User: Which sequence fits this backbone?
DNA sequence: TCTTGACTTAAAGTTGACTTTAACTTGTAT
DNA sequence: ATACAAGTTAAAGTCAACTTTAAGTCAAGA
């Protein structure tokens, strides 16, 4: 099965211009062309594009993704480097999840804060509560917010 | 306790120019000035800046953060809107965590893939395995990557 | 053959969030 | 009184990752 840039873009849910841009930047060295110069994406290319998508979601730059693709094109000599890179990105994603979990805790505190404000009619009620009056789960969050 | 822009920036771990930029964009209407025009940050302002940081981490744009700050300056009439916004951001962060968890699963598959390639000396071994030969936990991930 | 929609490239434009620069002012320490 | 680090502004510059534009080419259907 072969796809034009528009068809592959639709399958991936991205704009055709994005795929052309990636190609121009050297991220798609595996894509072949028709005799007339039109890009012909194979099914295997879809998998490459999914890997690119995955690495993008880890926060990796296109430049570094390009390096990974280049390594992959090199063949089996680069397996070790690729493994190392994947493990590094895995750790990076774990760190991002931890970070977002902290952000989530802060938002849960703020939700409680505004729910309490709503019930009492004013933010001064939750704002002026002592630490002891706060639900225990929000104490550390408030201390951090206030720099204590 | 009062802080200059440089002192507050250091406390937050950001560049002074960032705080000046936020101020210029209207995100810091609460910051007061000395008679000579120098910004004097209060301890309460540190808390505002932490809230701005938190909202930034949720992926909210500075424009929308500005709206939230403006609502907060409005006073108790906007409690309900602020609560709604916080809940929306909470859901957004949960979705981001779910997304990253999927990305993590894909990276774990890739880690297994390259470890297997390393052991056998070639990526063709993990690549050509049938679904049944794969560890069960990676089957769905590989199907998704290949678009099956 | 002709039309038409989708393809091609190079180059310029966009966006958001800063950072840097230049020219000038403030405030503290000697 | 003077020096000097750190403050001020407006305006321009930077960066990554696209998107848009313009001018032209390809390929499938009537």
Assistant:
């Amino acid at each position: 099965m072969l796809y034009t840039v528009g068809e592959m873009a639709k399958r991936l849910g991205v704009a055709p211009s994005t795929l052309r841009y990636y190609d121009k930047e050297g991220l798609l060295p595996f894509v072949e062309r028709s005799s007339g110069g039109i890009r012909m994406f194979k099914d295997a290319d879809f998998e490459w594009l999914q890997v690119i998508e995955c690495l993008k979601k880890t926060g990796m730059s296109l430049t570094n993704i390009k390096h990974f693709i280049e390594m992959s094109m090199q063949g089996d000599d680069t397996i070790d480097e690729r493994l190392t890179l994947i493990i590094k990105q895995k750790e990076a994603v774990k760190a991002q999840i931890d970070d977002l979990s902290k952000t989530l805790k802060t938002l849960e505190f703020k939700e409680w804060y505004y729910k309490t404000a709503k019930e009492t009619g004013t933010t001064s009620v939750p704002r002026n509560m002592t630490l002891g009056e706060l639900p225990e789960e929000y104490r550390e969050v408030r201390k951090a917010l206030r720099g204590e």
Remarks:
- The two ends of chain B are 61 Å apart (CA to CA).
- Chain B has two domains: 2-74, 96-145.
